[in-house]
Every structure is written in structure tokens, then in C-alpha cells.
Amino acid sequence: MKFKFCPECGERLITKPIGDEGDVPFCERCGRPWFDMFSSAVIVLVVNEYGEVALLQQDYMSTEHRVLVSGYVKPGESAEETARREVAEEIGIELTDSRLVGTYWFEKKGMMMIGFIAHADNAELTLSGEVDSAEWVAAEDAIKLVHPKGSVSYALLDEYFKRSVSERFIEEVRSIKWFKNSSVPTEKYLLVRSVYDAFDNWNADYLKVWEPHACLLEKMAEKMIGDDAVDSIFETVSMALDGDIWREWQAFRARAGLEEESSLDEESVDMVKRDLCWAAVEKALNITGFFTELLDIYRDGYFPCGWEGEFPDGRAAVL
Ligand SMILES: [Zn+2]
Fold this sequence. Notes:
The chain has 3 domains: 1-37, no CATH class; 40-162, Alpha-Beta Complex (Nucleoside Triphosphate Pyrophosphohydrolase), CATH 3.90.79; 171-318, no CATH class. 40% of the residues lie in helices and 21% in strands. The protein contains 8 helices and 12 strands. Helix 4 packs parallel to helix 6, helix 6 (227-255) packs across helix 7 and helix 7 (265-284) crosses helix 8 (290-299). The longest helix has 30 residues, at 195-224. The chain is elongated. The N and C termini lie far apart (61 Å). The site of zinc ion has 7 residues, from loops.
């Protein structure tokens, strides 16, 4: 917005050269410049732990394309606060983190768009009156549904895909509440009562299922992305998640009264990291197999430590 009259006193503005700014509209009566004004808005790519993004249908914005959460920055707010508020208002979820990706000038509306990639737990979306519908969509599909290349939505998704598979995997699984349901009775899995029980009675059988999958995946990965890429995934993923998993594992043991079983900590945490690394490799190969299934069990808050029957039939034994 360009000012012709002074918003304070109504005087017609003159133009006056001010330093490096050049000619600027100026009120002689108030003795102050009135720089061109524009609004700022945030736009947020919300990603859940499954690598799905929240896409909105907002007919007043577009009937042809889906959009991301967006909204104006209010005076006094930081852009990060706006992002959190808008996501909560429009789709009813809490962000766990947000990362500023860049700022984009939106010519059509003459405004500054501040772009974030943010994370939230996969939860049902509760819509505000401004949103006609919204759903979680796989990122690979989302990029085909938003406004095409040149739009801010597209730029954010493009940026999302620019990160390596390991980085994206780590960002996604970080919000998993590790072992949160461990030792909570469930119909879905066979519950194992102690870490000793898991290792003594399940480990051998589990490896019979686990090993062929790991071998096959390793061979496929060798061919498709090469050994170095696999090594790099293992290194990056286990290093990034090590601290979280240790902490949550020990918290679980304390909660479950399994304090005596600390001698198996290292092996247990290594098993978790190993499973996650293989799940990241499946992601890199763009396949969903045994380890993606294990990842789902971790997402459910359990620790898969055995398998009853044949995969994919039968069910996991979990702590
Ligand atoms: Zn004035």
C-alpha cells in the first residue's frame, strides 16, 4: 500500500529524498515519512510422523488447488507464534516444532509470506469455519495437489524433498513417544512382561523372521542406492536418535519396575536403533516392508522384540 495522504493528519504527502531510501512519501505537517506498507503472513507445511502433510481445501482461496495453513501475522506476534496459532486455529493441532525455511514475496496480494516447515503428531484435524476440509496426505502426493511451481506451497514442499531421506526420516520419527505404551495391555500385540523374557524366550525366534528381511533389504539397497548410502543412513539415523531412545528406554524401565534388567539396556537400545535404520533404508528405497511395519509398532508406543507365527501373518511380541 502506497500512502498519498498522511494517515495521522490527512495532509497530502509530498515526496522527499531520505538517505539511501530515495524519494519517500512525507508529511510536512507531522514531519515524518510514510513508507509503503504491506502485510506479512505465515504459511506452514505441517508434517506428521508418517511423512504426511496437512492439506486444506479452502474454496475462498482456490477450488482447484489445495492449500497449506496460512494466516496474517498480528502486531506483537513473532512469526513462529503466528505459525503455532494459525495451525491450532485452522486444523486444531499443536506443533511440536517449526523451522523457518524462507520468506517469499507474494506479488498477487502484495504481501510477504514467511514459510515454515513444522511437525505435529498425527491426530484428527478439527477444522475452523474458514476451512472447508482438510486431511493428511503423503508428501509425494501433496506436491501434485497444491498450486504449481512458482507458488509458496510448492516451494515449501520442494524444500522438504531437498533434505536427505535420513534427515526427513529423523524429523518424522522424532515426535514418536518411544515405549509410551510398553507394558500396557493390548489386543493388537502379544505382550512380553520383562526384558529378560524378551531376550531369553523371543530373541532366537525373532531373528528367524528378522534376519531374512534384513538380508534381502541389504541386497536390494546395495543395488539401488549403494553401500555408502546405506552406511550413511545408519550413521546419521542412529546418532540422531540415540539420546532420545536411551532416555525413553530408561524411563520405561523405571515405570515398569524393571530396574534389575539394566544389563540389557545397551542391547535393547541397539535393537531399536537397528530397526529404525532399516526402516529408514526402506524409506530411501521407497518401499514399505517388514521394518516399516516395525516402525508402526514403535509409533504405537511398543518395542517389538519377537514375532509369533510367520510375517506378515501372526503378530508381534512386544514389550
Ligand atoms: Zn501528517
